[in-house]
Amino acid sequence: IFGDNYGNVRAYGERECSIQRRNQKLVEEAPSVAVTPEIRKRLCDAAVAAARTCGYRNAGTVEFLLDANGNFYFLEVNARLQVEHPVTELVNGNIDLVALQIGIADGRPLPPLDGPLEPHGWAIECRINGEDPFANFAPAVGLVDFVRFPEGEHVRFDTMLFAGLDIPVFYDSLLGKLIVWGETRDEAIARMRVALRGLIVAGPQTNIPFHLALFEDPDFQRGAFDTGWLERSFTMPGLLDGPAAAVALAAAGAVAHGVSQTSTVRPRTRWVASARGLTRRGLVNEEGASGWRRGTTSR
C-alpha cells in the first residue's frame, strides 16, 4: 500500500509468501495462486481501510493469513517496502516503488492511474542466501572467487555480489534477489529454472540447489502449499552422484579454469587468510583500507 499527504491511499495487489523456513521467506510470488479476483478486492479494500483509519503516509505492507475457505485474518503492517517488493513492481507495469516512496516523503501526491490496478502476468522472486541446503541450511561465508549473473529477457538480479567479496558473519544471509516475470505462472517457473542455472557463485555455498529442487516439486508447481508445507512436506534431495555428478564436476572445473584465466582478484595472501579467520571468530582487524570487503571493521 501507499498513502500520501493528501488522503490518497492505494493498494498494489497481493504477494504470496508461504514458502518459508523457520518463518523466513525464501520464495515470493505475485499474484498469489490462492487469491481470486474477488478475494483480491476484499484484501485490497481492507488494507486501504486500515491505512486510511490511521492516516498512514508512506509505503507499507499489510500482512494477512488466508484460510482454505477464502477468509483472511489481519497480522500486521510493515511500515516499509519489503525484500520482495520487486515482484509487485513487475506485475504492475515495472512501476518503481522506491521512487514512489521517495516522492511521498518529498510531499508529492500519488500519481494518477491509467486504469484499474490489476496484476499483469506473473512474477517470482528467489532469495539467494549464503546457506548450505545439504547441511540443514548452515550459514556459509567466505571469499567469493567468481560470480556470473543470469541473463535473458524479464530476468532481474538485485545483489551486492562481486568477485573478491569476503562474505562476513555479521549480517543477514541474503546475498541477492533473483526475480523473473512471465505471462503465466508456468512460464515464470520455467524462466526461473533457467535463471537459477545461469547464476554461478563460486566460493561459499548458496541455496541455489534448494531453489532448483523446489521448482521441480509437483506440489509447488500446482501451488498446493501453505506456510507450514516446506518444513512439513518438502525433502531436500541428496548431493549428486553418478553421471549428474560428473557433469557438475566438469562445469565446476570449467568455471575454475575461467576464474584462473580471467579473474582480476588479487591472490590470497597470509594477511587476507588471517583477516578471514578473525572475521569468522567475530574479532576485529584494525588494519587495511579495504577491510570492509573482508567483513572486518576498524576500531
Description:
By secondary structure, this protein is α+β, with helices and mostly antiparallel strands. 31% of the residues lie in helices and 23% in strands. The chain has 9 helices and 16 strands. It has helices at residues 37-53, 85-90, 97-105, 185-198, 208-214, 218-222, 229-233, 243-262, 270-280, and strands at residues 2-3, 9-10, 16-21, 24-30, 58-59, 61-66, 72-78, 122-129, 131-132, 138-139, 142-143, 146-148, 155-159, 166-167, 174-182, 200-202. A 5-stranded antiparallel sheet has the order 3-4-8-15-13. Strands 2-1-5 form a 3-stranded antiparallel sheet, sandwiched between helices. A two-stranded antiparallel ribbon has the order 6-7. The longest helix is centred in the C-terminal third of the chain and has 20 residues, at 243-262. The radius of gyration is 21 Å and the shape is globular. The two termini are 41 Å apart. Mean pLDDT is 86; it is low at 259-267 and 279-299.
User: Beta-strand level of the residues, as a percent range?
Assistant: 15-25%
Q: Could you tell me the number of beta strands?
A: 16
What is the SS-derived class?
alpha+beta
Question: Which oligomeric form is depicted?
Answer: single chain
Q: Could you describe the largest sheet, including whether it forms a barrel?
A: 5 strands, antiparallel
Radius of gyration: 21 Å
Helix % is: 25-40%
Low-confidence stretches: 259-267, 279-299
Task: Supply the number of helical segments.
Answer: 9
Helix-strand sequence: EEEEHEEEHHEEEEEEEEHEHHHHH
Shape: globular
What is the topology, as strand order, of the major beta sheet?
Answer: 3-4-8-15-13
Average pLDDT for all residues: 86
Q: How far is the N terminus from the C terminus?
A: 41 Å
